[in-house]
Input
Amino acid sequence: MKSDLKRSVCPYDCPDTCGLLVEVVDGQAVKITGDPEHPYTRGTLCPKMVHYERTVHSPQRLTNPLLRIGEKGAGQFKAITWDEGIQHIADRWKGIVSDYGAEAILPYSYAGTMGVVQRNCGEGFFHRLGASRLARTICSSAKGYGWAAVMGETLAPHPEEVKQSDFIILWGTNVLATNIHLLHNVREAKKRGAIVWLIDTYENPTAQIVDKVVLVRPGSDGALALGIMHILVREGLIDQPFIDRYVQGFEQFRDDVLPDYPPDKVSQITGIEVNLLEELAAGYGNALAPFISLGSGLCRYGNGAMTVRTITCLPALVGAWGKPGGGLLTSISTSKALNTRRVTREDFSPKSTRIVNMNQLGYALTELAKPPIMSLYVYHSNPAIVAPDQNMIIKGLRREDLFTVVHERFMTDTARYADLILPATSSLEHPDIYRSYGHYGLQRAAAVIPPVGEAKSNWEVFQLLAQAMGFKESYFYQTTDEVINLLLDPPTPWLEHIDLAKLQDGRSVELPLPENYKTTFLTPSAKIELYNPLETEPLPRYFEAYGDDAPFYLMSTPSPYSLNSSFNERPELLRKKEAAYLQMNAKDAGSKNLQDGQRVIAFNERGAVDFILKLTPKVPLGVLVTEGLFWTENVLGDRAVNALTSQRLTDQAAGSTLYDVKVDVRPA
Ligand SMILES: Nc1nc2c(c(=O)[nH]1)N[C@H]1C(S)=C(S)[C@@H](COP(=O)(O)OP(=O)(O)OC[C@H]3O[C@@H](n4cnc5c(=O)[nH]c(N)nc54)[C@H](O)[C@@H]3O)O[C@H]1N2
Ligand SMILES: Nc1nc2c(c(=O)[nH]1)N[C@H]1C(S)=C(S)[C@@H](COP(=O)(O)OP(=O)(O)OC[C@H]3O[C@@H](n4cnc5c(=O)[nH]c(N)nc54)[C@H](O)[C@@H]3O)O[C@H]1N2
Ligand code: SF4
Ligand SMILES: [Mo]
Output
């Protein structure tokens, strides 16, 4: 038995983008370890990926194209060949295009793989087809918008910076589950004496490792940030020389906005005691190098973009950007390092086609007209579980006249509703190149094992579809490696200074950061824009989230043992998640006459979902928490948590409002 050790990259939607070493025996991946030579992740992996080979070679992998033979959603299929499958799709699509126009076809994809080619190559195909476009805003578009309203295209701080900070705020992020390598850096800072605060809506698992926890009323963080800044100004804890040199609009902000947010008023809005507010503001204002790690939870509200914009103003007031270890990290954007447009091929689009928001798939499938959606093509996403308003999505997927194709590795809830399923490769079976949104690494990965069964990669399927639809553009007839090369050549300014040989060899390379990048503000004014004249609200202010007419806010947050709806194929990880629990404060349970361990139903105007009640002091009054997304086969009832969430969008950037949801609870 010959054993080979090959390099690869974790393909999942996680900021860490770890380097992997894969032991391959006879074409099978037998062991996965972290790559100790990876400059940032240095050989450690999370509990999900230490046995990635169990996902790759899972007995549940889809290995053949499948055609529906039973009712929609019943999960009855027969195996067909790839030729039959592709021909069937092309025939149906040609009919739909001639009867309704190509906009009656809707692609749906998100982040099953983060590889730049496999993730984006479908866009070239669907632009050429003239299909409706998908606004891919389920995750954190509002966060990106809020950051950019203040900082423009300024580069995010390197995550190693946090090691030098003496005061760290983990704001709306459960790094123990979702960003473990940042947590390593936080721990190192802590060893050197840094004080760490967590600001969240409940004591999430990361609370165990911090010094102070602030529980904020869901959706009210904007008011909290304004309250902190009010105190900073009142106490003179601002960095006036930094402000004079680098900040636009401080005086207006100080005089027109901050007086409206005194501590007692902010305490009422946020539910945070005035003393704690004062302590937090004093700690932040007196720190030598305060650092904020800002998660996405708080951006998924009706006021999410404004909340992020407001928090992003904080480091400017204390001059944190000018100090090693200071600043604020939301996401790292290195999209400009690659020629991504050479893969997404906007230029193939015949005209500006209709845009459908991915958070409103339910409406799109049930209410959209002129033309209605007659075909849905889902790849590397599982909207029946991850997207809001599950009942409306399922109503749409049940439509007899909707032709649904799902390209997947597993029989997900979405795949069950397909008319035709195509088996997808895992990341070990196809080549790609990976950027990261948590560090500055770039890494190319080759396929390290042959495809499992008859699985094909996203790019290979779009090539077959292009051929069957009669597309002649040479773009569609290139190998995956040739497409990767399009991204790298001609080299963007960022790539001019990296070790290309190392990249081609499959090792991670760090994109170089310019000197003084933390005080080089890439905004129209070249300053940090507290006042932004291009915004309809030129100055940040607080307004309320949507909420619902129900008593409890519902947080549906990530679990360490799954990633969105991925990893539900792993029995040992499912066992660690135990069950779909609904965490509740004992006092709230008492007033509802509910007991620990009891089966309950959370409900609102959109749906009803069964949970097992778990009483815990970690959740404050008026808040409920469920950790992890489950496939429906692993929950108690027939619906999962997104039957409760809404299709409403954020204030800016058309993001999801997955946490801006209220429910009531009753015994099952
Ligand atoms: N209630 C609630 N809902 C949420 C969230 C939440 O916190 N609460 N989180 C939201 C967030 S932040 C996000 S980003 C979205 C994520 O939503 P998605 O991007 O849909 O993520 P996954 O659920 O991981 O589903 C990805 C699917 O892609 C498949 N896949 C993996 N690799 C490939 C491949 O190479 N090709 C193909 N064709 N398929 C592949 C996997 O098997 C998996 O079933 O979910 C959102 N939904
Ligand atoms: N293990 C694991 N890792 C993951 C994922 C996963 O599902 N599992 N998902 C991946 C994806 S797609 C993403 S986008 C990232 C997400 O990662 P992050 O953006 O870092 O956010 P999360 O860790 O999801 O934590 C969200 C936190 O926000 C809190 N929160 C909700 N509402 C509010 C509010 O109004 N105010 C405040 N202050 N806090 C609030 C929640 O309680 C929760 O603790 O993680 C990625 N990594
Ligand atoms: S999911 Fe995140 S932490 Fe886990 S191996 Fe992948 S990149 Fe690393
Ligand atoms: Mo996400």
